[in-house]
Amino acid sequence: MNATNAFLWPIRVYYEDTDAGGIVYYANYLKFLERARTEWLRSLGIEQDTWLAHRIGFVVRQVQMDLLRPARFNDELRVTVVVERLKRASVEFSQQVLDNENNVLCQAQIRAACVNLGEVGSAVRAVPMPTEIIEVLKRAS
């Protein structure tokens, strides 16, 4: 991961994020990663609801996640976003969840595909990203 161009998003661990032992439940790391990608897009001026109105969205197609250390209730974390590869209809990210001492708690590789959502009830299919989005992502990479 290239830390020099990493987007950082702060997250605090809430009680609802943890299991009975006060440790973050593994599936909630996916929520942390998703929130950071959404805020990264917003910081670039890409509002997903604007594109959803045009029936264009992004769906996660592949996740590879490695949980290295536990996060606990009330921890303050930072989630990184780095574009690793930009393709015509998809984007691949490296992401990490870090604690306040820069220990990597979770690392993940995410591939998201651009899709045409079509009409409600119709098939969702991959499509090339709109030029406006590709240009913004190229500048941010």
Short note summarizing the structure:
This protein is an alpha+beta fold and 141 residues long. It has one domain (3-140): Hotdog Thioesterase (Thiol Ester Dehydrase, Chain A).
H-E string? EHHEEEEEH
In CATH, the homologous superfamily goes by the name: Hotdog Thioesterase
The proportion of residues in beta strands is 35-45%
Global structural class: alpha+beta
**Terminus-to-terminus distance:** 12 Å
Residue-averaged pLDDT: 92
Number of strands: 6
What is the CATH class name?
Alpha Beta
What name does CATH use for the topology? Thiol Ester Dehydrase, Chain A
**Domain module count:** 1
Shape by Cα distribution? globular
Low-confidence stretches: none
Q: Sheet with the most strands? A: 6 strands, antiparallel
- In angstroms, what is the radius of gyration? 16 Å
SS field, number of helical segments: 3
